[in-house]
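Reopening this one. Same input as before:
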Amino acid sequence: MKLITSTFTAAFGLMSLPLVAVEKNQPNIIFFLADDMGIGDAGCYGQKIIKTPNIDALASSGVQFMQHYSGSTVSAPSRCALMTGKHTGQAAIRGNGSSAVRNEDADLSLPPEEITVAEILKEKGYATACVGKWGLGGPQSNGSPVNQGFDYFFGYLSQGAAHRYYPEFLYENESKYPLNGQYSHTVIMQKGLEFIEKNVTKPFFAYFAVTPPHADLDIPDLGIYNNRFPETPHINNTTKGYKTQLQPKAAYAAMVSELDRNVGQIIELLKKKGIYENTIIIFSSDNGVHKVGGNDPDFFDSNGPFRGYKRDLYEGGIRAPFIVSWKNKIRTPFVSYHVSAFWDFLPTVCDIVGADTPKSVNGISFLPELLHDNRSQSKHDYIYFEFYEQGGKQSILSADGWKLIRLQVSNPKKTYEELYNLKFDPGELANVITQYPDIAEKLRAEMAAQRTDNENFSFSK
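Same output, byte for byte:
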């Protein structure tokens, strides 16, 4: 049984108050997580073709972070970092695959000793729900969302099943819920909105871990994008891989705009129920844009000014849109250049609700930044990533903008490194490792210090 100790500490400059009195005024928290949406796919980050008016309005009403990092460059470790506050050098789950046995219903599970954001909030009296894709443990496992602090779950427990938008069933908690031909994302959104409606009288945490625009590129209505673009059809004549899509550009654009419509639905419901101003709304994506199923991210400039895509540790694979709206506290919207990452979410939540932050986390609270208190905002010394596919990769970014990338880490005879200065070269165009060997050596040593061994993830396997 997990034990979480927490005491109410001074927040927002208030003296300690009785726990129940504080909880009555605690903000609701909604985290809306897109799947494989590039940072450049939202209008507020420079998108010119795909329409995202609700996301853009969210940014203009709150804080738009310009240097925020996802938890990883693929799904499962990114979500692990978000839930546990640990980066991939320390986290229990560091990749989509591992040496552990996995099947369609049982991805590698979060271990029982991990403390999640949901568990912390549940102890503080929050109702908690996750709808969409989980990917951190199957039914009846330690990692199942209902065993990791969520009162309610609806969606895909496994990542493999989440590639399809018309599966036979989804999971409601740990029971199979037949879809009978319904588009999965529509039902997932419906269940999430129902959870909000049922919990308007108490604080809640709603984690919308939705699946668009992850491939398959599949949506019932292409809307305004139908027949709009020059298309190269994606044809699949097998039973495996991503489905045939005759208009992949239109499908991708429609899926992003559908997410934007969903953000609008959530805001409309919050306003209708009179709880909008006391609700924190966060919008982000789990990693960089994908290049599968016929998607053409270059057409939309989905990675913006950055190099790389999903599965890269270049900025395009790990930079994420990150927008926070909180009308009660963020009354003057602004653009933030604070360097932050998914593993900062848990300590930020702890600061907001007055819980003790677990000592094992790598994140730092960005609550002072939200409140425009730059003087008390702590900063990361380093942002570290490791990734086990494509020969193994590591990267580390220092506070002064130097970034070292190691490639082919699993093949010592082939391992090589690249060094960039993001302050002057955010597109990672000029590898200057031969010019600055001392900086590379310092980052190399710090890279080794950032990680611990993990029995399921090793560069030697």
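So the earlier flakiness isn't reproducible anymore. For the record, The longest helix spans residues 248-272.
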